[in-house]
Amino acid sequence: MYYKSRGYKIFSIFNHILLVLAALSCFLPLLHLLAQSFSSKAAVNGNLVSFWPVDFTADAYAKTFRNSNFTGSMLISVVRTVLGTLISMFVITTAGYALSKNFRGRNVLMWIFVFTMLFSGGLIPSYILITSLGMKDTMWALVLPGAFGAYNMILIMNFFKTIPKALEEAAFIDGASFFAIFQKIYLPLSLPGLATVGLFIMVGHWNSWFDGILYMSNTDNYPLASFLQTVVVQGSAQNMALTQSEAEAMSEQSLKAAQIFISTLPIILVYPFLQRYFVKGIVLGAVKE
Amino acid sequence: MNTQTNEMRLDKLLRAKKNPWKKEIQKNWPLYILCLPALVCVLIFSYSPMVGLVMAFQNYKPWLGITGSDWISLDNFSRIFQYQESIQAIINTLIIAVAKIIAGIIVPIVMAILLSEIRHVGLKKSIQTLVYLPHFLSWVTIAGIMIDILGLDGGINHVLTNLFGTKPIFFLGDPSLFRPTVILSDLWKNFGFGMIVYLATITGIDPSYYEAAEIDGANRWQQIRHVTLPSMLPMIIVIATLSLGSILDAGFDQIFNLYNPLVYSTGDIIDTYVYRSSLLNGQYGFGTAVGLFKSGISFVLIVISYRIAYKLANYKIF
């Protein structure tokens, strides 16, 4: 057998080392962040923290949660994620169900939807549209423009196509309408698929930061990701122009670390559920007919 | 009398043929209603901005609006090739995007093959779990970590100075290092996720192929070269062709969170340039023109890539 040969054994050792290192590289930055967030300011600024907290303190977290800008943004993010996911799921499951059937004009509709994946009006026309609809500085600017995603709709449509036609025919004979069939047969039977797509949409909403910066002129209306962008990224860009001592006083890396970590925590928490489904989901989406 | 009814019936039949919608709507009206929310969404938020693209041919002023602004035909487009900044942004976009595409195709293939050589199931699963994770983190989070550990007094420089005694390297502020930093960090974020399809393909290979190869005296490398790789080829072709469409997409989220004025010369891309020139500097018409230039070319490339993928591997999006 090949794996008993000397050459293969040597390869195998290097292979294990390489892959373990690759895996660690994906995890250590987050651990570093966590360690920083629980370390004292002096230890962090003195570059003493690697992967374990030095001078353990939860000050950064206490400070973060006392910051009303932070908690306000967090609330906006929660509302946006829940509302946005619900609206999105409604729009794409209804269309996905209808388009999984054959009816006159279906292909035209399908192309109208797919075309949005291929071409878009772009940044400025969208910005002007939102402004002229009066949606600036409202929640709607965050949840409505991306509510329909053609890719997700196609995924759901393909889930619906796998449900046996006989079920629908039996329901028709019993006098059920399309609406009843959609609600009582299709939705419950494709729940795992819907959950996957829903989780992806939720993560997308939680992570989305640019629309907040674009459509909110008042920083009080920023979702958490946008707030974090201004604190972590824009703040540090400004710091580069400052002198060493000024920059040090400004940069409270332990505070930043705590803020980044808190905003990443929901993603890490749903990740196990996400992972269980997405491998299957992607494979299912790739197989047609 | 009889002929008259016949005529009437014929007339009705003809009209039904002329207007097949009537019967269709009677039978399938719920399906049309179910499509309505999505259709409204798409018409408002995807198609009506496309009407706004006419701004690319205008000297657009927000207070005059689309109807009141001056038409300047293709002036905005010719300006794209007059400004040093916009030409540089296009060049940077191409270099960064092409490098990302090539690295993003090769590395996941290699890593998937290497991972499939690990037979310990628990270890394999743990590695998979960890390498998929960065894909789900936002660029804001990753940029926050990168700015810290890649800074002049950050962790990476700390290690390098202690090990090799090198001077601190300014990864995010040195124009010659910015592109490699961007390309590598993007690779780090997405290689795991890119592996998934290949791992699925490798798992799907019939073990009897390997057994036959083994009997014929093939060593492991030969088995990979002659069994694994050919089995992965259709998937590789599909992914490579489809990535053609992202050749002008260098990754706005990433660049916007990592770049700064020091590295505009190598790191400014079309999308960030559009943002700065229009929303920050008020050149709305010009910004729209640059955006249309990009999305127009991308559209053509995507359509071509889908046609090729369909021809070569029978790939369909729906």
SSE layout and pairing:
The complex is a heterodimer of chains A (289) and B (318).
Chain A: H1 6-37, H2 41-45, H3 59-66, H4 68-99, H5 106-118, H6 123-132, H7 140-143, H8 150-161, H9 165-173, H10 178-189, H11 191-207, H12 210-215, H13 224-239, H14 244-250, H15 253-286
Helix pairs in contact in A: 1-15, 3-15, 4-8, 4-11, 4-13, 11-15, 13-15
Chain B: H1 2-18, H2 21-51, E1 58-59, H3 65-68, E2 70-71, H4 75-80, H5 84-116, H6 121-132, H7 139-149, H8 155-164, H9 175-203, H10 207-215, H11 220-242, H12 252-258, H13 264-267, H14 270-280, H15 284-313
Antiparallel strand pairs in B: 1-2
Helix pairs in contact in B: 5-9, 5-11, 6-9, 7-12, 9-11, 10-11, 11-15, 14-15
Tell me what the structure shows.
The complex is a heterodimer of chains A (289) and B (318). Chain A is mostly helical. Chain A has 2 domains: 44 residues; 227 residues, MetI-like (MetI-like fold, Orthogonal Bundle), CATH 1.10.3720. Chain A has 15 helices and no strands. In chain A, helix 3 packs across helix 15 and helix 11 packs antiparallel against helix 15. Chain A is globular. The C terminus of chain A is likely disordered. Chain B is flat. Chain B has 2 domains: 51 residues, no CATH class; 235 residues, MetI-like fold (Orthogonal Bundle). Chain B starts with a helix and ends in a 5-residue tail after the last helix. By secondary structure, chain B is mostly helical. The longest helix of chain B has 33 residues. Chains A and B meet through helix 1, helix 4, helix 5, helix 6 and helix 8 of A and helix 2, helix 5, helix 6, helix 7 and helix 9 of B.
